[in-house]
Amino acid sequence: MIRHICIIGAGNVATHLSLSFYKKGLTIDCIHSRSIDKAKKLALQVDSDFTDQADKIPKNSQLYLLCVPDDAIVPVAKSIHKHSNPKAIIAHTSGSASSTTLQRFFSHFGVFYPLQTFSKNRELIISEIPFFITASDTKTEKELAALAKTLSKKIQIISDKQRMVLHVAAVISNNFSNYLFQVSATLLKNNDLDFSNIKPLILETAAKIQDKDPKDMQTGPAIRKDQKTIEHHLDFLKDYPELKELYRFMSQAIQKTSS
Amino acid sequence: MIRHICIIGAGNVATHLSLSFYKKGLTIDCIHSRSIDKAKKLALQVDSDFTDQADKIPKNSQLYLLCVPDDAIVPVAKSIHKHSNPKAIIAHTSGSASSTTLQRFFSHFGVFYPLQTFSKNRELIISEIPFFITASDTKTEKELAALAKTLSKKIQIISDKQRMVLHVAAVISNNFSNYLFQVSATLLKNNDLDFSNIKPLILETAAKIQDKDPKDMQTGPAIRKDQKTIEHHLDFLKDYPELKELYRFMSQAIQKTSS
Question: A4-158 has which CATH code?
Answer without folding.
Answer: 3.40.50.720
